[in-house]
Amino acid sequence: MAYPFTELWDAAHAARSVRARGKRRARRTADPGRGPGPSDRGPGLSVICRLRSRAARRSEVDLPSRSVRLEVRVELKPGVLDAEGESVEKSLGLLGIRGVRRVATAHVYDLEFVDVTPAEAHRRAEAAVDRLLANPVIHRVTIRPPPD
């Protein structure tokens, strides 16, 4: 049995792809009202990328970049339910692995900053924690150099 909506969807999809192809072609052609065409734009993107990569290689040879690595550990505060930890603890018991008193989960982020001082790297890591990596209500955060 054929579904009646299949044909409608196929027709609508084909129309959208034809319209999109037409828009891409229109962007490629030079139009006096729209600005410069492809021949007026200068070197292609691949040429620019090659030039940038050569410059980057030269700067790497001349000035070695100084990087700072920090480990950001995000754990749940005491009293906050750790459902994943409890599930793992229960599963370990079911698998016959005995003697596990407690399982706690944590996220560890290894951040590497380039061309900054250690103080600036620490400040940026704190900004990342505040804006993205942790919720101060439920998480406890530790920022330190990674143990190497």
Describe this structure as you would to a colleague.
The chain has 148 residues and is an alpha+beta fold. It has a domain at 67-144: Phosphoribosylformylglycinamidine synthase subunit PurS (Mth169, Chain: A, 2-Layer Sandwich). Helix content is 48%, strand content 17%. It contains four helices and three strands. The protein has helices at residues 4-28, 45-62, 83-94, 118-133, and strands at 67-76, 106-114, 139-144. The chain has a three-stranded antiparallel sheet, covered by helices on one side. The chain is elongated and about 50 Å long. Residues 37-53 have low confidence and may be disordered.
Helix content: 40-55%
How many β-strands, per DSSP? 3
* Weakly predicted, low-confidence segments: 37-53
Strand order of the largest sheet: 2-1-3
Radius of gyration: 28 Å
Query: Quick one: CATH superfamily of one domain?
Result: Phosphoribosylformylglycinamidine synthase subunit PurS
The oligomeric state of the chains shown is single chain
User: Could you describe the largest sheet, including whether it forms a barrel?
Assistant: 3 strands, antiparallel
Structural class: alpha+beta
- The averaged pLDDT comes out at 76
Termini separation: 64 Å
**Reported CATH architecture of one domain:** 2-Layer Sandwich
Helices and strands in order, then pairings?
Blueprint: H1 4-28, H2 45-62, E1 67-76, H3 83-94, E2 106-114, H4 118-133, E3 139-144
Antiparallel strand pairs: 1-2, 1-3
How is this structure best summarized?
This protein has 4 helices and 3 strands. The protein has 148 residues and is of the alpha+beta class. It has a domain of 78 residues: 2-Layer Sandwich (Mth169, Chain: A), CATH 3.30.1280.10.
